[in-house]
Amino acid sequence: MSLARILYLSILFTVSHAPIACGEELNRNTSLESDQAMNIEVNASPTRPYAGTTLVSCLNPLMRFAGHPEWSMARLQGILGHAFHFEMKANGDFVMHDNLDWGSRALAVLSNLIEFRNFSATKHDTEVDLPALKLEACKAVRASLAHGIPALVWQPMTPEMKSNGQYAFCWGLIVGYNEEEETYSVRHPNLKNDYTIRYDALGKTDGAQWFNIRTFENILDLDEKPTHLAALNNAISFADGKRFKEEHEETQRGLLAYDLWRKAFESKDVSPEPSRYHAEILKGRRQAASQYMRELIPKFPEADKYLEEAAVHYDNEFEILDSLHDLCSLAHEAGVFSAEERSDARRFIGEALKSEQMAIASIKAAISAY
């Protein structure tokens, strides 16, 4: 066994028996007697508000457990890309702004940060023995919980939950297991209360029927400067709409998304509710971008001037988007935008775009200064 692995296991043992940083406790409550089934619970919860990303909401407590409390919600959004992402449809209709959370997008970046044991299969993986895979995952989850570590789980929701409006879309945390009932206890960023689900009932509520559970193995050794430089370069790629290779004819990304959104307000048929949602998500992301820029200043003192400039531009954009959100909320109550409100919305989006462009220019200058 390598020295690194020995040190990791020693840390794992220590942390699982004591409170972790920032006052958060990932304590375990294990009941094990000779004539009783084993029930395990871990005191860990997704971070709320979850900022429109269940992945980051669930990763945040895991990073604290791993001894990295400095990896805030804003830092995770910056590294994984949420802080800089924006996408829009031509008519201003709803967009899945959390689409970084699945597929090969943020998860590909995540693989460079954290080592997980990954149990994954879809309905297309016909060669996989799915019942055996779910049982193997269950054993790994129980072992992880026994060490005080929750597990990441994709879409912990049954078809019955979905039909009843108990929406546990995307990522949640497995925080407990009842051996007698063979059920996981789950906490989800979008639901107030804990709930249970059978270990073999997962993977039935999205189009691909994706079953995915990830148990924490290790924090990878990080040279943080290259990690953050990659995130800054990705911010530019997000703005240029070039971060991802696939093309979607119905959407625009980055700076072009602002123009498309602004154009939507030329029509009297533009709907208030989607725009209120867009404004809410975007202002939260640019607030995270601002915080992330300031977190980087001690790491890149050569570029401190430009990072602070970028943060100020993101602050300004947040204020503009907050005003836009208020406007959309009023229109939502009325059921329609007035002509004056549509004009104001176009102005707000134009001002937000200018702030975004200046923030990206400052990020480019920060990279050059480093």
SSE map:
Elements: H1 3-15, E1 28-31, E2 39-42, H2 54-65, H3 73-80, E3 87-89, H4 106-110, E4 114-121, H5 130-146, E5 151-154, H6 159-163, E6 171-178, E7 183-187, E8 195-198, E9 211-219, H7 224-240, E10 251-253, H8 255-264, H9 272-296, H10 304-334, H11 339-369
Antiparallel strand pairs: 1-2, 2-6, 3-10, 4-9, 5-6, 5-9, 6-7, 7-8
Helix pairs in contact: 3-9, 7-11, 8-11, 9-10, 10-11
Can you put this structure into words, describing what you see?
Strand 7 and strand 8 (195-198) form a beta hairpin. Strands 1, 2, 4, 5, 6, 7, 8 and 9 form an eight-stranded antiparallel beta sheet that branches. Strands 3-10 form a two-stranded antiparallel sheet. The two termini are 39 Å apart. Helices cover 47% and strands 14% of the residues. The protein contains eleven helices and ten strands. The protein has 370 residues and is of the alpha+beta class. The chain has helices at 3-15, 54-65, 73-80, 106-110, 130-146, 159-163, 224-240, 255-264, 272-296, 304-334, 339-369; strands at residues 28-31, 39-42, 87-89, 114-121, 151-154, 171-178, 183-187, 195-198, 211-219, 251-253.
Unreliable spans: 1-27, 30-36
Q: What class, by secondary structure content?
A: alpha+beta
Give the biggest sheet: 8 strands, antiparallel
Q: What average pLDDT do the residues reach? A: 88
The proportion of strand residues reads: 5-15%
Outline: globular
Using DSSP, what is the number of strands? 10
Distance between the termini: 39 Å
Percent helix range: 40-55%
> For the CA atoms, what is the radius of gyration?
22 Å
Q: How many helix segments?
A: 11
Give the SSE string. HEEHHEHEHEHEEEEHEHHHH
